[in-house]
Amino acid sequence: MKLRNILIALFLISGVALYSQIPNRKIYDEKAGQNVLIGKCNRNGLKTGNFGYHFNIKYKEYNPSAAVLEKIKEHLDGLTVTVVLGTWCSDSEIQLPRFFKIMDMVNFNEKNISLIGVDTKKQTYITDISDLEIKLIPTFIFYRNGKEIGRIVETPKRSLEKNIFKKIK
Fold it and tell me: Where do the domains of the chain lie, and which CATH numbers do they carry?
């Protein structure tokens, strides 16, 4: 009897863990009045629906400074980035396409980017982000060899690429 209960518990735990790893989960956010991505996301999730409409247009339109991109390229070793975003958020609609355009132009490995979607309460319900201390979104957190070296919160004061360079140099 005990073995059966243990096996059932392990099955349930593994199912929850697997569920939490599925990217681009959507829930209906009452305050936003729309479906939003929560938990782990990827670029494919950002390129769909209403958010995708904005993402695709703003990605094409953005022209980052070539000079700043060259400087960024010199500081990519050991770099990873975690982005906490809201697909309901206008700042995320503007900054995420710019971020990906910059990262694409510097040939940054997309495997080193973690995207986490939150609802209007800044919750994911399936991914614990409490240690990230998120106040506003989007929040871009830059790590070098696992240690946080800087973050950009909401809308950068200068261009996004200049702010990225300032954080990673």
Answer: 24-168 (3.40.30.10)
Q: Provide the token pair at 92.
A: 């995320």
In the DSSP assignment, the letter for residue 22 is S
Q: Which residues contact 136 (CB under 8 A, 6 or more apart)?
A: 91, 153, 154
Q: Which amino acid is at 112?
A: N
| pTM for the predicted model, two decimal places | 0.86
Tokens 């990217």 appear where? Answer: 23
Of residues 87, 151, 131, the one with CA closest to residue 160: 151
* d(C-alpha 59, C-alpha 9), whole Å: 45
3-state SS class at 114: strand
Confidence band for 158, pLDDT divided at 50, 70 and 90: confident
CA distance 87 to 32: 10
| The two three-digit tokens of residue 78, written as one number | 């050991």
pLDDT in tens, 41-99: 999 999 988 788 889 999 999 999 999 999 999 999 999 999 999 999 999 999 999 99
Tell how strand 25-29 and strand 147-153 pair up: unpaired
From 77, 76, 84, 78, select the one nearest 102 (Cα to Cα): 76
